[in-house]
Amino acid sequence: MSGMAKKATEPKIVAIGGGTGLSNMLRGLKNYTGKLTAIVTMADDGGGSGTLRDELGMPPPGDVRNCLQALANTEPVMEKLLAYRFKEGCLTGQSMGNLFLAALNDISGSFYGAVQKLSEVLAITGRVLPVTTEDVRLLVSFDDGTEIFGESKIRDHKKSGNRHISRVALLPDKPPALGESIEAIKGADLILLGPGSLYTSIIPNLLTEGISEAISQSDALRVFVLNVTTEDGETEGYTACDHVKALFEHSGSQLFDYCLANSTDLPKDVAERYAAYGACQTKVNEKELLSLGIKTISRPMLDCSEGYAHHDSDKLALEIMNLYRDKSPTKVYG
Fold first, then answer.
1. Contacts of 314 (CB under 8 A, 6+ apart)
2. Cα Rg, the chain, nearest whole Å
3. Over the stretch 180-189, which tens digit does the pLDDT of each residue have?
4. What burial class does residue 326 get, using C-beta atoms within 10 Å of its C-beta: 0-12 exposed, 13-18 middle, 19+ buried?
5. DSSP codes of every residue in 5-69
6. DSSP percent split of the chain into helix, strand, coil, nearest 5
7. Residue 154: which residues within 8 A CB-CB, separation 6 or more?
8. Could you tell me the domains of the chain?
9. Which of 33, 56, 185, 251 has the fewest CB atoms inside 10 Å of its own CB, making it the most exposed?
10. How many helices (H) and strands (E) does the chain have?
11. Three-state SS for 120?
12. What single-letter DSSP state applies at residue 202?
């Protein structure tokens, strides 16, 4: 086990988001606490998740599956099985983990029940909760007045006209958040937003009824984990301050007090690869963030071992726990 050993007074951590950024962070955090709750967006409508959503009428399982895999304590063969994607036939591109959840959704009669059953099978550390069990879709408004319906269409529409996202909304508007998700936030010692796609993984959670309110009223340490790079087709040209402004504008309040950012520069070859797609390392201006009431904590947390830039899950978890130890008002972990 890396980092500080678990203690009887483990902090209750709630991590809110979706996509690979959230699951990568959870993989490191599970070494520090068993009181870990991932609250996951349900707005995905592309890929294998979108297919199951359209054909079976179930919520999109992909982001939940990624988090369950990250928190699993099972034999490596089981993790490989869940991550396996079919390479031919009508199941091409579909993940075995998604199919597991689809089967359990039918057996248990609800997606929430399916997630709980697979959590038991995988003996996960902590728990994974869908932010809502409502059938929600993303409506995206752009600065040229155009709108699109569906998360999977954003990139192509944005790139085709050099547009910029001005606002996102859920349909139906303000769907009720899962009660367990709100209760987890209310009882948390540490609340984490991100890392993950700003408009499609993080903000959709804040548009459900009760989530933003619970975060804003919490006495927990609240931290935004900034993406290492901007995202092609979503946040090109965005600074850390732009990310924060978008989050506050969609939530209507200041939801966090700290921004945890990577301080290691991208290697030249990696930076050039991202530049070819209009993306770059996310720029951080501490004075600008401070003007919004946000303190910046910059630490070396970069992993480019596979040629792409993302957080090193162990280093990220360590810095999160160091920040909690130093800044938390609850001080339940030393």
1. 2, 3, 28, 31
2. 19
3. 999 999 999 9
4. exposed
5. PP-TT---EEEEE-HHHHHHHHHHHTTT-S-EEEEE-----SHHHHHHHHHH-----HHHHHHHH
6. 45, 20, 40
7. 138, 140, 148, 165, 199, 200, 233, 234
8. 13-42+131-327 (3.40.50.10680)
9. 56
10. 14, 12
11. helix
12. I
Cis bond before residue 172 (omega within 30° of 0): yes
223 near 257, Cβ under 8 Å? yes
249 in Cβ contact with 292 (< 8 Å): no
For 222-251, letters b (16+ CB in 10 Å) and e give bbbbbbbbbbebbbbebbbbbbbebbbebb
* Whole-number Å distance between alpha carbons of 241 and 195: 15
Cross-strand partners of 137: 171
3 state SS of 173: coil
The token duo for 295 is 């303190």
pLDDT tens digits along 18-36: 989 999 999 999 999 999 9
Structure tokens at 285: 């201006």
Residue with token string 């790079």? 229
Total residues belonging to the chain: 334
SS3 (DSSP) at 227: coil
The partner residues of 37 in beta bridges, in order of sequence, read 14, 127
**298, containing H or E segment:** strand 295-299
CB–CB of 224/16 below 8 Å?
Answer: no
Q: Which residue, chain included where needed, has tokens 């004075």?
A: 287
How confident is the model at residue 133, as a pLDDT? 92
pTM for this predicted structure: 0.93
Q: How far apart are CA 214 and CA 295, in angstroms?
A: 21
Q: Which amino acid, one-letter code, is at 199?
A: Y
In whole angstroms, give the CA distance from residue 40 to residue 132. 9
CA-CA distance, 65 to 96, in Å (whole number)? 10
Residue-wise pLDDT for 221-245, tens only, equals: 999 999 999 999 999 999 999 999 9
